[in-house]
Design goal:
Blueprint lengths: L1 E5 L2 E3 L5 E8 L5 E7 L6 E7 L5 E3 L7 E6 L4 E6 L8 E7 L3 E2 L3 E5 L2
């Protein structure tokens, strides 16, 4: 599976951003998003079952982030709302946690 993440950028606190992760190659069961802030370990953010759309979240983003998928485009989306400075990180998408995208930087700052 090859993954291509996109959509990162600079956004003000309270703002929104949508990340995309386009998948190609083999099938997979789940797409997850992780993030790694400077000086910190990579952490799980949110995920979705590719077959039935079941979603699961970390408590730190519950109510602010949502994940969706477009099976026809084989693309996953991470919608981030009410962004906080502590959401600043490189965001990675992963398929079954075996295949990883290249990461996209999200910076939340005024």
């Amino acid at each position: 599976v090859q993954l291509q993440a996109s959509g990162g950028g600079l956004v003000q606190p309270g703002g929104s951003l949508r990340l995309s992760c386009a998948a190609s190659g083999s099938t997979f069961y789940a797409m997850n998003w992780f993030r790694q802030a400077p000086g910190k370990d990579r952490e799980f953010v949110i995920g979705i079952s590719w077959s039935d759309g079941t979603t699961y979240y970390s408590e730190s983003v519950k109510g602010r982030f949502t994940i969706s998928r477009d099976n026809a485009k084989n693309t996953g989306y991470l919608q981030m709302n009410s962004l906080k400075p502590e959401d600043t990180a490189v965001y990675y998408c992963a398929a079954d946690n075996d295949y990883w995208g290249q990461g996209t930087l999200v910076t939340v700052s005024s």
